[in-house]
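Exercise: predict the fold of this chain.
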Amino acid sequence: MRSLDLARTASRFSAVLGLARKAPTFAAALALLAAAAPSTRLSAQTLCLNGSPPPKCSNFLIVEMAGVLPVAQTTRTITYPGYPSIDVNAFDERLQWELGAMRNLNARWAVGGSARLGTGSSGALVGLEARARRRFDPLFSLDMSGGIGYVVANAGPRRVAPVVDARVNFRDDFFVGLRYEQAPLSRSFQPGIYDDPGGRQHAVSLLLGTGSEWTLGGTALLAAGIALLLATVDFS
C-alpha cells in the first residue's frame, strides 16, 4: 500500500509538470483571444469578450477556466494474484480551459463551439464541443453543450468519448454546472502480476468556473504559482 501511495504522489507531481509544459500553449491561446476582442468601452461591437446580447454584440468569445470535480462515477476492479483486489475509477479532479466563439441569433439565443484544453489527457487538447446559450435576463443564462472528449487511462491508447455539459452562467463571470462523460478503457494485464478489465466507465462531475477577464487573471496567477513551485524544485 505504501508503494501505491508513493505512486499516487508521483502521479500528482507528474500532472503538475505536465500542466507546466502545457502552460505556454494556454497562455498563447488566451493572448490571441484577448487581442482579438475589442475594448468593452465601445458602444457598439461586433465581437465582444463578454457574451452580451445584440445590438451590443453580434459575436462573442468563450474564454473560461473551470475545475472538474467528479461527484459520482463507476469503478472497475483490478486484481493482483496473491494480493487484495482494488476498485479504481477513471476520472480524477481536473483543471480545464474552454476557448471558442459564439454568435448571437437574437436577444435570447446564441450558438457556437469551443476547444477544451487542460489536464485529463495525453495532450493539451482534451475535447471539442458545440454549444448553445439561452439567456433568461441580463444576468443569468443557461449554456448547453455536447461533443467529444479525449480520454487516456489504465495505460491504454487515447480514446474518443461523448461529453455533455449544462451550466448556469452569471454574466460570463462565474458559472456552475454538471458534466456527464464516458471513458472507454482497454483491458490491460500482465499474467501473474495484475489484470485491469477496462470497460466503459461513466461519470457525473461538478463544474465550477470563471469566464472572460476572471479567466485571464486566474490563468496569469496560476502560471505565476507554477513558476514559483518549479523554482523551488531541485532537478539535479
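Check your answer against the key: The chain has two helices and 13 strands.
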